[in-house]
Amino acid sequence: MSELDNSFSGTKAVADALAFDEGRLTEWMQAHVDGFSGPLSVSQFKGGQSNPTYKLDTPGKSYVLRRKPPGKLLPSAHAVDREHQVMKALGEQGFPAPHMFGLCMDRDVIGTEFYVMDFVEGRIFWDGLLPDVSKDERAAIYDASNATLAQLHSIDYAAAGLGEYGKPGNYFERQIGRWSKQYRAAETDTVAEMDQLIDWLPQAAPEQERTSVVHGDYRLDNMIFHPTEPRVIAVLDWELSTLGDPLADFTYQLMGWVMPPEVRGGFLGIDLDAHGIPSMQTYVEAYCKRTQRDGIPELDFYFAYNIFRLASIVQGVYARALQGNASNAKAMEMGKAVTPLAQAALGFAKNAGA
Questions:
Q1: Structural domain boundaries of the chain?
Q2: CA geometry: angle at 121 spanning 118 and 122, to 5°?
Q3: Residue 165 and residue 157: Cα distance in Å, rounded?
Q4: 251 neighbors 299 (Cβ within 8 angstroms)
Q5: Backbone torsions φ then ψ of 56, nearest 5 degrees
Q6: 89 CB contacts (<8 Å, ≥6 apart)?
Q7: What is the pLDDT of residues 197-256, one digit of tens each?
Q8: Which CATH superfamily is domain 135-351 in?
Q9: Check: CATH 3.30.420.40 for 3-118?
Q10: For 273, which of 61, 164, 202, 236 is 20 to 30 Å away at the CA?
């Protein structure tokens, strides 16, 4: 296992700031989860920066609990009820999402809202270079990731019962406004590049041609792969999902190809062919073929938007870390990443004519 995989994979003892009354949870599960039988043992997953996630072990079965973090939260963030809704609906459409056992909106149980879902046994790859698998399997893993996202973007969201899950139009206008507000609410230092992006992005957004469910944080480490096959068996972390422009979703994952290794394990400057990982052009062509597109124009805008959005998310994680509420110890280090991300986003904006 790589150092990065080891840092984020597996569980640890529950942090004091994120502990809760396990007896109250046991009572709730006995009343709401079919087939539940204790006793219950609780640990916390190492990975994840936003909504704290726990493994619940019993003698007969394991579950996953995901909750809102305690403390003061940014407006509209950490909507665990929406995560539960979208995974339940998509799972019923044959999309690889964990089975949902129940949603609890009563804060008196463990202190914040939460849901319980199935624990899916498989592989999570935190290092995008996939050092622990063969070269041939790396290509297949990325192709499976590509196919799964194309499947999501091809689902009839209205037929899935998600017609009210978001607004079908003006996605970029709404998202740029949302992340600008979230950034301002979490701002700790002045970053001139973020100010410039907040001014430029709204007037540069392309017209939205299609609407689909968008995951909002689609990347390799938010998927569980089959234990031995290059196949996605669950997609996790739907906190940022909504109805929106599928190209925003796809190009968010595509950022990995244009970011340096020190920024979220980007591929910039790496010989991808030697690693068996598809080039950006190959990955784009595969997605376009699967979704019946001729190509993706205006990539510079999409990259500027997505990196700006990532910088805003990172700023929010850092602000929570300052309050002591972030779910990962590395969150305190994130404040240093905001300015480099903003600079990278502004570089793409300038390529697009800013």
A1: 3-118, 135-351
A2: 135
A3: 9
A4: yes
A5: -110, 110
A6: 160, 161, 162
A7: 999 999 999 999 999 999 999 999 999 999 999 999 999 989 889 999 999 999 999 999
A8: Aminoglycoside phosphotransferase (APH), C-terminal lobe (3.90.1200.10)
A9: no
A10: 236
